[in-house]
Write a structure and sequence with these properties.
The structure is a single chain. The chain is α/β, with parallel strands linked by helices. The protein has helices at 4-10, 51-63, 75-83, 100-110, 125-131, 154-163, 176-179, 214-227, 233-244, 246-265, 284-290, 305-315, 364-377; strands at 68-72, 91-95, 116-120, 136-142, 167-171, 189-193, 207-211, 270-274, 297-302, 320-321, 331-333, 354-358. Strand 4 (136-142), helix 6 (154-163) and strand 5 (167-171) form a beta-alpha-beta unit. The N and C termini lie far apart (53 Å). The structure holds ligand P1T. Ligand P1T binds at residues 74-76, 99, 101-102, 142, 146, 171, 173, 193, 195, 205, 207, 323-325, 339.
Length: 381
């Protein structure tokens, strides 16, 4: 099988047979001519299937080592499709550190149709087994997790889920398939917010579901067509373009993030640094075993609590204060009030002194200078 970088550039997108174009066309057509009823060239109507989307689906599925992939209009739309695999009365065990929107989808949407959930720390597989109920069908994890970069052992948790007859879903948004391939480690389904590293340029919102299970894949594709949360052809083109450089971007994200994590760890205004590449991180050994690199996300708490955290977030200049992550430009955000506002008061609540960085691809010395200055301005020392 071809290597990752080769697949990222070529999978699902051979040169166009009729024109020789090396870049997939943006097929805007909503419908496709049929020579006779049911006699078509693989496409009928663009919600059900579109050539630009098919190229993206083949490409990202190949990167995840999956037999099937379905693209969605956002990460949450992809998650929603996966949760719709469940029926009223079913139960989900979810990691106790996940994106706020994932919690909101469970608590405010799927709970209302009878899907119960409970959260558990993932670092002890026995505790996850203990949280399993007779009606539990799914274990949902993020690793590294949003926002404090906890690491879960994918293969151990796959074993727990399978021993109970359930499925393991891994949100691979933070790692990307370049750094981690959950299906090869025993996961049943991978979900992505492609808005993040796969797009990589903060200009497209999207989601993805990858699986090698034919039954799950067929159900997801029925949901994709029946519910209709599909990405536009232009969004698919932007994602195909972004994915081509994923490997080189991730290498630099990892290198820059490691430098930032080291600098923060040595800074007197910083309390705790969360980065799985640090040997002191409790998940470091697991991350080193199941990931190719430690990723571009770094979180930290500041001494002085929320007020100092808000001041630092307002004081950085290169790190733009904004939600989202995974693109070329560096971002800073305050999870308690921003991305994780919906988990306030729940067992998933995050520390108000926490700041999250998406370390981008700028000159790392400029990034370090920006943080140093902001931590000083904010009166952290
Ligand atoms: O925003 P959307 O494309 O719908 O993806 C949702 C989502 C799913 N999974 C993870 C791990 C995520 O981080 C997200 C979105 N997260 C942010 C917008 C954020 O700033 O954390």
């Amino acid at each position: 099988m071809a290597g990752f970088e080769t697949l990222a550039i070529h999978a699902g997108q051979p040169p166009d047979r009729s024109t020789g174009a090396v870049v997939p066309a943006i097929h805007l057509s909503t419908t496709f001519a049929q020579a006779g009823v049911g006699n078509h060239q693989g496409f009928e109507y663009s919600r059900s299937g579109n050539p630009t989307r098919s190229a993206l689906e083949a490409c990202v599925a190949a990167l995840e080592g999956a037999r099937h992939g379905s693209a969605f209009s956002s990460g949450l739309a992809a998650e929603d499709a996966v949760l719709r695999l469940l029926a009223p009365g079913d139960h989900v065990v979810v990691g106790d550190n996940v994106y706020g929107g994932t919690y909101r989808l469970l608590a405010q949407v799927h709970a209302h149709v009878g899907i119960a959930f409970s959260s558990v720390r993932l670092d002890d597989p026995a505790a996850v087994g203990a949280a399993w109920r007779p009606e539990t069908k799914m274990l949902w994890i993020e690793t590294p997790s949003n926002p404090i970069l906890r690491i879960a052992n994918i293969s151990a948790l796959g074993d727990v889920a399978h021993a109970h007859g359930g499925m393991l879903v891994v949100d691979n948004t933070f790692a990307t398939p370049y750094l981690q391939r959950p299906l090869a480690l025993g996961a049943d389904v991978v979900v992505h917010s492609t808005t993040k590293y796969l797009g990589g340029h903060s200009d497209v919102v999207g989601g993805f579901v990858a699986t090698s299970d034919d039954v799950i894949a067929s159900r997801i594709s029925t949901l994709q067509n029946s519910v209709g949360a599909v990405p536009s052809p232009f969004d698919c083109y932007l994602l195909l373009r972004g994915v081509k450089t994923l490997a080189v971007r991730m290498d630099r994200h990892c290198a820059n993030a490691a430098r930032v994590a080291d600098a923060l760890g040595a800074h007197p205004a910083v309390d705790t640094v969360y980065y799985p590449g640090l040997p002191t991180h409790p998940g470091h050994a697991t991350a080193a075993a199941q990931m190719r690199g430690f990723g571009g996300m770094v979180s930290f708490t500041v001494r002085g609590g929320e007020a100092v955290a808000l001041a630092v977030a307002a004081a950085t200049e290169l790190f733009t204060l904004a939600e989202s992550l995974g693109a070329v430009e560096s971002l800073i955000e305050h999870p308690h009030r921003m991305t994780h506002a919906s988990v306030a008061g729940s067992p998933l609540a995050v520390d108000p002194a926490l700041l999250r960085l998406s370390v981008g691809l700028e000159d790392v010395d400029d990034l370090l200078a920006d943080l140093e200055r902001a931590l000083g301005v904010a009166g952290g020392r």
